[in-house]
Amino acid sequence: MKKLKTQPPEGSFLWEGKSAKDGAAVYQRTCRNGPNGTPVYSSFAADGGAPAIDPQIVAQQAVSRMKLSGPKIASPRPAGKYVIGMPTWMWVDKGPSTFGPNTTSATAGGVTVTATAEVTQIVWSMGDGAQVTCTGPGTAYTAAYGRQESPTCGHTYTRTSASQDGGKFTVTATATWSVDWQVNGGSATGQFTEVRQSQEQVAIGELQVVR
User: Fold this and answer.
1) DSSP conformation letters of 72-139
2) Which of 40, 60, 181, 196 is the most exposed place for a label (fewest CB within 10 A)?
3) How many whole angstroms from its chain centre is CA 65?
4) Tally of domains in the chain
């Protein structure tokens, strides 16, 4: 946030009814919360001195530094072999930018805010019309589980992907990040969410009985 070097002429709508004669000034605030982190500008007038900083905006600046991404899908994977009628286990690899927790601070206008982000749920769109909501990273499959269903996050396909483009279903994992923030040395706190996505192409076949 900064004070405009060239103040608008008297009567401009940017003054919001205020006046430089009364000690007011027009400031411009920049937040990188547009599409793909592009800057979004806003202007406003304040009576005397610099206006109070909105701590949530500072928290959003902290989150932009985290470079949060969609889930790192470990399963189902493109090279895997999956068949109809067999449980498919879904899970993701945890990391600071792919699942959290991720903690970063940012400072603006003398206000420092610490934000912590972590994925609270992942909605899996399986490509066959089904959606599965999981509240954790999922359970990694091992051979010891045999044909059991995943205890935390799974799906069973009932048709093949042969009719799809490229013969594969597009699996989309949509993660909801919960961000908790607090002003350092202050009592102000808050929370907001961010959403990120990842995709994989997965082939689903069927068992062939050979006699």
Assistant:
1) EEEES-TT--EETTSEEE-EEE--TTTT--EEEEEEETTEEEEEEEEEEEEEEE-SSS-EEEESSS--
2) 40
3) 13
4) 2
pTM for the model: 0.74
112 is a domain residue: yes
Kindly report whether the peptide bond that precedes residue 101 is cis, defined as omega within 30 degrees of 0. Answer: yes
Q: Which of 63, 24, 32, 29 is nearest to 43 (CA)?
A: 29
pLDDT digits (tens, 9 = 90+) for 162-172: 999 999 999 99
Cis check: omega of the bond before 35, within 30 degrees of 0: no
Give dist(CA 199, CA 157) in Å, integer.
17
Does residue 157 share a domain with residue 192?
yes
Task: Give residue for tokens 């985290």.
Answer: 66
Q: Which residues does 56 contact at the CB level (< 8 Å), separation at least 6? A: 181, 190, 192
Please report whether residue 150 resides in a domain.
yes
Question: Are residues 195 and 177 in contact, defined by beta-carbon separation less than 8 angstroms?
Answer: yes
Instruction: Say which residue, 182 or 207, is predicted with more confidence.
Output: 182
Domain span at 4: 1-51
**pLDDT tens digit sequence for 96-130:** 999 999 999 999 878 899 999 999 999 999 999 99
